Amino acid sequence: MSALHISISAEPVFHIGFLVISNSMLTSLVVTGLIVLFCLIVRSSLKMKGKPGRLQSFAELIIQSLLSLCEDITGSRVLAREFLPVVVAFFLFIILNNWLGLLPGVGSIGFRAHPGETESVVMAPVSEVHAKGPESAVEKTAATEGEFIPYFRAGTADLNTTIALALISVGLTQYIGFKHLGFSYIKKYINFHDPINFFVGILETVLEFAKIMSFAFRLFGNIFAGEVLLAVMTFLVPVIVPMPFYGLELFVGFIQALVFSMLSLVFFNLATLGHGEEH
Amino acid sequence: MDAEATKNLAMGIAIGVGAIGPAIGIGLIAGNAVAAIGRNPEAASKIQTNMILGMAFAEAVAIYALVVALIIKFV
After folding, report:
1. Residue A29: alpha-carbon gap to chain centroid
2. What 3-state class would DSSP assign to B14?
């Protein structure tokens, strides 16, 4: 099973001072760079009259379809325009991260860490080998060769990235609630009017934390499970058979990006409604 | 039973039992969506979008079980 490389956490690639740059962070940076570059190119070639270019049509297609989605859910153009930038940012960042993880070379091109360079990763198996005794001599050579570390790993296949995205989404929900309802938004969580509302408030508070977990694990689980599925399929049958699974993963990547941005949108919209109107 | 065998068994039970609920849920969603399309074929595209979204939510529960199984196996 030595050919099968599955790691549940992102591995450090290099260090800048005390800051550890992991391979999923590297991919996220590439994705951010791509999005910024795309936006700059579209902005510079923007034509207000006459026939728009292909690139402009493509950008308009993305914005238009997401704007109509926002309008369908919020039911008002003003709110839709307010939430649109966040929704588009979530959607583009997540979908590009998901699809970048499917490119050949991502997760398969890397280097072998020298023992001692990444202490915690490499030293642990070595001590295990000594404890187990001579029957695992093969593992020993593999351990002294060093752990295989790919340069790139899909950003959303790392729990840190998805928890960060979930925190941004839930944090923004609170901000939007306070912005639209003023201080009375806090009544959703702390309410002393009657005992039932008090307990509902406690439940709502717990629900906010559950939302972070569910956002983070849904995205991470789907993308990481896809990577494991592809790795296992490639390990079992290297040709032809993994191909339909790549198609499936393209679809899953799109659906998960859509689900994340749409759920965020629904929660933003709920936060703008007062407590009475919600029921 | 040593630790490794227990781990493998726990992983199998985690994903096996965890997949039952989402499987029933996805079956119900798809069945009802097909019935709805049969009754109102013009609304097929709208129903399909909602069906796929609902499936993604039902599937997420299976994915939680899978994450737990993978954590048991690899951590």
Report:
1. 13
2. helix
Of residues A221, A255, A262, nearest to B64 (C-beta): A221
pLDDT digit string, tens, across residues A128-139: 444 444 444 444
**Residue A18: Cβ-neighbour burial (10 angstroms; 0-12, 13-18, 19+):** exposed
Nearest CA of chain A to the CA of B63: how many Å? Answer: 6
Q: Using beta carbons and an 8 Å cutoff, which residues of B are at the interface with A? A: 52-53, 56-57, 59-60, 63-64, 66-67, 70-71, 74-75
- Give the chain A residue nearest B71 (alpha carbons): A8
Question: Which of A8, A222, A225 is closest, CB to CB, to B74?
Answer: A8
CA distance A194 to chain B (A): 34
Q: What is the pTM of this model?
A: 0.81
CB A143 within 8 A of CB A115: yes
Report yes or no: A215 at the B interface, CB cutoff 8 Å. Answer: no
Nearest to A121 by CA among A11, A6, A3: A11
pLDDT recorded at residue A20: 85
Strand pairing class (A110-112; A19-22): unpaired
Q: Which residues from A are below 8 Å from B57, CB to CB?
A: 259
Please write the tens of the pLDDT for every residue from B64-74: 888 888 888 87
What is the residue type of A173? T
String of DSSP letters for A115-168: TTTSHHHHHHHHHHHHHH-GGGHHHHHHHHH--EEES---GGGSHHHHHHHHHH
Residue A219 tokens, joined? 């995205």
With CA atoms as reference, report the closest residue to A264 among A61, A97, A89.
A89
Cβ atoms of residues B48 and B36 within 8 Å: no
